[in-house]
Predict the 3D structure of the following.
Amino acid sequence: MQNSPVIKTLRIFSKQDIKEFALFVQSPFFNTNQSVVKLFEQIKKHYPEFDDKMPDKRSLFEKSFGKIKYDDSFMRVTLFRLLELAKEYLIHRNLKRNHLLKETILLDELNYCDLYDSMLKSIDDLNKKIIKQSVKDVETYFVKYKLEFYKNEVKAKDTKLITYKDTLNEDLMLEQRNLNIYFFISSLKFFQYFLNQKDFVVNASGYPDFVNDILKFLDLNKEYLDVTALKSYYLLILLMTGKDDKYFFELKDLLLEDKADLSYLEKFNLISVLRNYAHRKLNEGNTDFKESILEVTRYSIDKDILSNTEHGRYISETRFMNLIWTANLSEESEWFEEFIKKFKNRIEPDKRQYVLAYCYGVLEFKRGNYSGALEKLGKSGPIKNVFYKAAIKQLTLMNYYELKWFVPAAELLDAYRHFVRADKLLPETYIQRCNTFINYFSRLLKINDNIENKVYEISEMITELKSTSQNWLLKKAIELEK
């Protein structure tokens, strides 16, 4: 029951959402089916956990409807109706949050009904709200475009404006400019997502339409870059495609200025790209980016820009892993541990066990408690995420080595090598990092078998490792040289 579509939907609701949804379900305007009301009253008792203690369908049926005979078809229909109401509530919640978009829907309806006096008043009210709003994101420019569109709709139907062509042309150009900004931000935002997916999630190919044309246009028409959101995506694409460090530092400065006109989502995307770029530089052995990535991470934690959506309940397990990798760069174990304690309840419940097992395993390894680290890793349970599968295997190997358990290390290394070769979900960049670790770890094990005759090979390996981000392997190689 806890994995049914309706429970998965209700699980993302905040406490305020649950309260409002209860009123929503009880309102005869939205729902006249009392069976749905009774069912929801029982289900909400298990919010927010909705864990394995939740009753099954039969028990829930009995608690909701008394001792009448169980009817599975009726139960499925009632659950379906509750799910449909939850979707309707999400539409309501979205419009409540996106108040400017809601105003454009009103304008569309007033235009449809030919209520032009009301429409002009609503246009004026919406314009004031846009001016007052500090955030100027992609949706704001869509609303500004719609605002100018409806202004021009009214003017086009007013015969008095036949002699006012200059004014109409100026407004038409403003409509076009806002549409352009909306299109440019949306296109570059998609391209940024595409590049991120290509590098870090799946092995994608192809190239989106118009991107180079947009970049050339913006390069020739710099006044468009006065729009902070557009400038941020423009610089993001230049960074991700050109790999020029100057764009990294320009974007980092833009982020840390904490501009009010950048939305939560734009800051979230900016943090993601900066972090990924800095990690790549660190993996190439460029330690100059260590402090920058810590700055960006601390900013994201201080401002709580950690979830995919503003005020989101959960941090994705992949993002949590990235935060752990970054926190591990810090020499402050206390800060690392404090971060885990503060945010562990922001991990989704069904993923929390293996995420925390890895986190505490990293923390114990950092402290030099290798047996304790293995104990933590052993409590991971079933692991759903391929990145955690790889990371836990690698951390286990490092603990085996520190404990000088070379025979089980060799056996696990062989299994790890096979896993990396066989898994189709690991992106190419991550596979390269795994293979680098596997190759050098294998060489470390072989050297430990016959260290006296391996002096040259140790020296050679140290030289090679200095150009990578494999600091632990480098440290172990230097120890062998001594």
Residues 5-97 form one domain. The CA atoms of residues 208 and 339 lie 38 Å apart.
